[in-house]
Known about the structure:
This protein is mainly α. The protein is 68% helix and 10% strand. The protein is built from 5 helices and 5 strands. A 3-stranded antiparallel beta sheet has the order 1-4-5. Strands 2-3 form a two-stranded antiparallel sheet. The two termini are 21 Å apart.
Amino acid sequence: MGRAKTTGSGWVGPVLPLLALALGASLGIAAGAWLEIEDVFGPPAMGVLAGEVAAAAVVFLVGFRKNSSWTPEGRVWTREHSYGGHGVQWLGVTVALAIATVPFSITFEKLTAPGLNWAGLLVAMAVTAGVSRLIYVKTCAPVIDA
């Protein structure tokens, strides 16, 4: 089991995606009721999707600020704020985008055609894996593999 090592606002890595899940669903339900949308899954899914994308952006920016510094040689990444030895910026974005895969597939089906939620799920999983790998290679790998 990994150890968490944070100070200040580094806690947002695992917590903000979970807060975005609850808050996004609540806001989606409220917006659906206000707009009188009778669809049961659409508004909450869209709210969760928007919340998780925003959470991923905020977590990455917090990790960027907390785990890197600019030197004359270029940007230097550290593990000052990490979970299990991996940077907050990678873990938080991966968790947020993983949570957003199902709401994206529901939203994709609502915006395209019935029965295409599987295609949306495949797209969301591919994007999550690609973004997660890109962030890991650019921000975590230089510190962990060194």
